[in-house]
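Thread: Modeling a multi-component assembly for a lab meeting

Hi all, long-time lurker, first post. My supervisor asked me to bring a structural picture of a complex we are working on to next week's group meeting, and I have zero experience with this. I have the sequence lines for every component (385 residues in total). Could someone generate the structure of the whole assembly? Inputs are pasted exactly as I received them:
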Amino acid sequence: MSGLPRPADPNLLVGYDSSDDAAVYKVSDDVAMIQTVDFFPPVVDDPYTFGQIAATNALSDVYAMGGKPTLAMNLLAFPSCLPLEAVGDILAGGASKVTEAGAVIAGGHSIDDQEPKYGLCVTGLVHPQHILTNSGAKEGDILVLTKALGTGILSTAAKAELLEQEDYDHMVALMTTLNKYAAQAAVPLHPNACTDVTGFGLVGHVKEMAQGCGHTIELWAGKVPIVPAALALARDGIIPAGAYRNMDFAQDDVCQADGIPQEVVDCMYDPQTAGGLLVSLPEAQVPELLRRMEEEGVPAVPVGMVRPRGDKWVHIKP
Amino acid sequence: MNQVDARGYSCPEPVLMTKKALKNGTPLVVLVDNETPLQNVRRFAMNNGYQVTWKEVGEDYELTITK
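Re: Modeling a multi-component assembly
Sure thing. I ran the full set together rather than chain by chain. Output:
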């Protein structure tokens, strides 16, 4: 995107220059519109589950900006040789999550393609003064993560049928849990910053958060929630190429303390599908946030802290 | 010599091929064509009690796994 001209419209409150989760456009003094789009090939074989995962992932960017999803449009690519029933199942899975989000699907577009792909373009609304960006973190803030890591590693293993049923179910549960509930707990507290953990992995998204606010962020590897099966798979070298790309991309900006198990670090770079929210707010508000998260059934965990600017953007500590 | 040519295979196949071939003993030579399987095969072997050396061979990588 860096080669494109900078947009000049002053109503574009959040564009692509800050690597944020979605675009935000001011409609009036009270209303801003959030727009986001995401789609990808199947991460699981079951079409209904795939639809649910893709929708959970696409809706997540609206929650990460502090908004509520209102309207969604389907994006579907599908080979004509596959049964139409599967198309219906994908769309039904997506619709189930859009409904759970309290939004409506207003239409969409489909094309013929060799490999299936599905996702949504989602519109949400937010008050212009309550937009949560990924760049507002303040020194002393605590970072709270709302889902365990490991879905990239787990879905790589699932493709080769290496997962036990229990671990597969755990992976699907993570990827089909809307960030709605985490947002309901966090947004009323007006956190300083928020993002969702997706393709760049935890460290990659924390790096963007650190660069956005100009402070160094310290991550506590020992506190980061990770699916146990993902740790075991990482030890066995079942790690997707995306995790290594994330490591290469972040390595100049990250320093890592000695003695942290390699598999833990690997999982911290694992690209997530429909990952959790990462919420940055003052330490004094953390107990209140965790209480609210618990009420919503969200297993939120403090995983790091915003520090004065150091020599690297991210410090991984034990 | 026990050898696996995992070039052209994407993750997690090279690790699975290595795991299978190790049943026939060491030393095992594994050929891969990019850094992802290089790192993954290394992690698998080292975390399962083997020693690994590797070198670049043209555009590929050759790992040697020993007990």
